[in-house]
Design a protein that fits this description.
β1 and β2 form a beta hairpin. This protein is mainly alpha-helical and about 350 residues long.
Length: about 350
């Protein structure tokens, strides 16, 4: 649903994968020599999705009135400011096709990063809910049944089992409330992950909780290298690219380092030296960048660095998940095993007495 605000139509923001698809299709048609208005007209005819149809229709109306593509993107209200600024630069430099190609690649990387973070959040969260539900069912529903059986057999439960049973009896309501709250929390996380703003909030929170070390640094470096490559391919000069990269990475581990890097560049330090001096990239990565700048292959080097840093971050995330999931399974197994042993040991004693 959209609403008029100050002459502009505000529509729900597009996700990174949607932005990537839009930029990619637009760049393909521009390579074929089709102008912006005709590109949007073709996309409008091909789409079967009502929301996408509304967005493209509004864009076509603005373009048909003589507005440039950047203005049409801005007035729809669903495209990020960064994309609008890059399209403006592409229009001014005559490199709009390259801009859209670079932006398609950039937003695909952002979509991949969001997917990895969703996977890192969702899997452990669901396992924690499962652990809570299983343990509460054992304490609240299973142990009372065994207690009645043992009482009928003229014996009792072990002290540990009695303690767990009392805990289950006293806190049955609290346990159910806790489990329900846990389920609601996980559901809220999943809903947040479905929106761009929610994903960004979770990403920043996840960065602060889990990505403060090497993994967070690798992710930030990957985004930095990808953003720099995209902006330089689009015709932006180096100084402007670094400033825009700092805005894109605001709140990340690289933010203070990029601030120092910009200050060093303003003082006359070359970009590769400033990056190395301020530890924006690792010493090995900075060395590769310096060699590439001397060889005139800066854009290719930045693209390669983005891939390397992303692979490094993916490997670290896989290691983290590989540790979290077995740990949760071990905890659940120990908890269930403890309950079963505390029930089975008295039962074995009863069976031995009956046999004697």
């Amino acid at each position: 649903m959209s609403e008029e605000q100050g002459g502009a139509v505000k529509i729900k923001a597009l996700k990174p994968d949607e932005l990537s698809a839009f930029c990619y299709k637009f760049s393909l048609m521009m390579k074929a020599g089709i102008n912006s208005s005709e590109c949007i007209s073709i996309l409008l005819e091909e789409t079967d999705y009502p929301r996408e149809h509304d967005i493209l229709n509004k864009m076509y109306e603005y373009l048909d009135m003589g507005e440039p593509l950047s203005a049409a993107l801005r007035k729809t209200g669903c495209f990020p400011l960064h994309l609008i600024n890059m399209v403006t630069i592409g229009e001014q430099s005559g490199r709009l096709e390259q801009v859209m190609t670079s932006m398609a690649h950039y937003y695909q990387q952002e979509a991949d990063l969001s997917y990895n973070i969703k996977r890192a959040i969702t899997s452990p969260a669901l396992m924690i809910v499962m652990m809570a539900v299983v343990f509460m069912v054992l304490m609240v529903k299973v142990l009372p049944v065994f207690k009645q059986v043992f009482e009928q057999l003229g014996t009792g439960l072990s002290p540990l089992t009695e303690s767990m049973l009392r805990l289950g009896s006293v806190s049955e309501t609290a346990a159910l409330i806790f489990t329900a709250l846990l389920v609601v929390l996980v559901a809220a996380l999943l809903l947040l992950l479905r929106s761009e703003n929610g994903s960004e909030i979770l990403r920043r929170g996840f960065d602060k909780l889990f990505f403060r070390g090497d993994m967070g640094l690798a992710l930030s470096r990957s985004r930095f290298a990808s953003a720099m490559n995209m902006m330089m391919e689009s015709g932006m000069n180096l100084d402007q690219a670094v400033v825009h990269a700092e805005e894109l990475l605001k709140g990340s581990l690289l933010t203070p380092r990029l601030g120092k890097c910009i200050a060093a560049m303003e003082a006359g330090t070359p970009f590769p030296a400033a990056v190395a001096e301020c530890e924006v990239l690792s010493s090995m990565q900075a060395g590769m960048l310096s060699a590439a700048f001397r060889a005139g292959a800066a854009e290719e080097s930045l693209a390669n660095l983005a891939v390397r840093c992303q692979e490094e971050a993916d490997d670290m995330m896989a290691v983290m998940l590989g540790r979290i999931e077995p740990t949760l399974i071990l905890i659940l197994s120990l908890a269930v095993g403890l309950v079963l042993l505390s029930v089975m040991l008295p039962l074995i004693g009863v069976m031995s007495s009956i046999g004697t």
